[in-house]
Backbone:
C-alpha cells in the first residue's frame, strides 16, 4: 500500500527458485528497513480470515501467495 | 528631420528609463515565478479514484464475505477482540466479548458486544515514512485494511501503539451507537435472507 497510489506491486517470484527467493528476501528487508509493516492474509478454520504479521522472511508461510506491506502504525490525533 | 526625431526618441527613452526598466524587471520576475510554480507532474484528477478502486479490490480479497459486505453496505468493519480481559487500558471487560469498529481515517472504537457500551477510542494513523516530507494519506479502503490486518494480526501491538481516548473525542457516541444499531439490523436482514435462501433451496415453505 502506498499513500496516494494504493496497491503497488513491489516484487514477485517463486520461493522455490533460489534466485527469486534471494531477490524477494532483499526486497522484504528493504521494505522493513524503510519502516513498513508486513502482513500475510490467511484463512483459518471455518473460513475465518485474518492476518499474520511477519517480522522476518522466515516468518512467511512457504505457501503464502502474497505479503502486503503498509506504513507502520503511529498514534493519531 | 529624421535625425532630429531619432535623437528626440533616444532622449525620451533615456529620461523614461528609470520608470520603464524596473517595470520590465518586475514583469520578467513574475513570468519566471509563474513558470517555476508550474507542477512537475500534471494533476491527475482520476488518480485518487483509481487508487481507491484498487484498494477496495485488495480489501475484498483479504477479508471474508461478511466483512466485505459490511464495509460496502455500512461503511465500517467490525473486528472481534481476542484479549481475554478486553483491550489494554479499557479497565477490563470481565471476560465479556468485545469488538472494534474500523472506520476509514477515523479512530477505532472498542465496545462491549452485548451491551454496546463504548469502551475507548484508539486513534491510529499510517504515515508514509519513506518520503522526507510526508505524502498523501492512504486510500480509505487501504486505511481500513491496514487497521484490519494490524488488529487481526497483532491486536495488542496496535492498541499499544494507538493513542487511547475516552469515547466521544473524535467520533460522536450517538453516531457510533446508531452504527451499532444499523449493524444489528443489517445482520438480522442477512440472517433472514440466508434463511429464505436456505428454505427455497431445500423446498421448505
Residues:
Amino acid at each position: 500500500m502506498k499513500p496516494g497510489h494504493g496497491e503497488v506491486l513491489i516484487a514477485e517470484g517463486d520461493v522455490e527458485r533460489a534466485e527469486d527467493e534471494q531477490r524477494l528476501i532483499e526486497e522484504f528487508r528493504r521494505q522493513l528497513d524503510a519502516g513498513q509493516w508486513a502482513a500475510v492474509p490467511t484463512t483459518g478454520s471455518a473460513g475465518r480470515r485474518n492476518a499474520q504479521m511477519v517480522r522476518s522472511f522466515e516468518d512467511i508461510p512457504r505457501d503464502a501467495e502474497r505479503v502486503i506491506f503498509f506504513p507502520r502504525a503511529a498514534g493519531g490525533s | 528631420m529624421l535625425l532630429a526625431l531619432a535623437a528626440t526618441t533616444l532622449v525620451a527613452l533615456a529620461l523614461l528609463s528609470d520608470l520603464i526598466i524596473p517595470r520590465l524587471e518586475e514583469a520578467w520576475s513574475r513570468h519566471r515565478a509563474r513558470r517555476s510554480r508550474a507542477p512537475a507532474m500534471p494533476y491527475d484528477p482520476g488518480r485518487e479514484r483509481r487508487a481507491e478502486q484498487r484498494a477496495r479490490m485488495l480489501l475484498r480479497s483479504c477479508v471474508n464475505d461478511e466483512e466485505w459486505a459490511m464495509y460496502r453496505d455500512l461503511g465500517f468493519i467490525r473486528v472481534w477482540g481476542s484479549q481475554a480481559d478486553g483491550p489494554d487500558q479499557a479497565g477490563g471487560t470481565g471476560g465479556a466479548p468485545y469488538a472494534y469498529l474500523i472506520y476509514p481515517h477515523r479512530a477505532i472504537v472498542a465496545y462491549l458486544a452485548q451491551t454496546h457500551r463504548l469502551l475507548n477510542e484508539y486513534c491510529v494513523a499510517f504515515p508514509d515514512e519513506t518520503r522526507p516530507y510526508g505524502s498523501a494519506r492512504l486510500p480509505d479502503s487501504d486505511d481500513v485494511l491496514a487497521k484490519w490486518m494490524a488488529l487481526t494480526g497483532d491486536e495488542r501491538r496496535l492498541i499499544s501503539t494507538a493513542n487511547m481516548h475516552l469515547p466521544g473525542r473524535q467520533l460522536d457516541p450517538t453516531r457510533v451507537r446508531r452504527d451499532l444499531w444499523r449493524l444489528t439490523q443489517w445482520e438480522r436482514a442477512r440472517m433472514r435472507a440466508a434463511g429464505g435462501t436456505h428454505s427455497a433451496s431445500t423446498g421448505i415453505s
Q: What stands out?
A: The two ends of chain B are 114 Å apart (CA to CA).
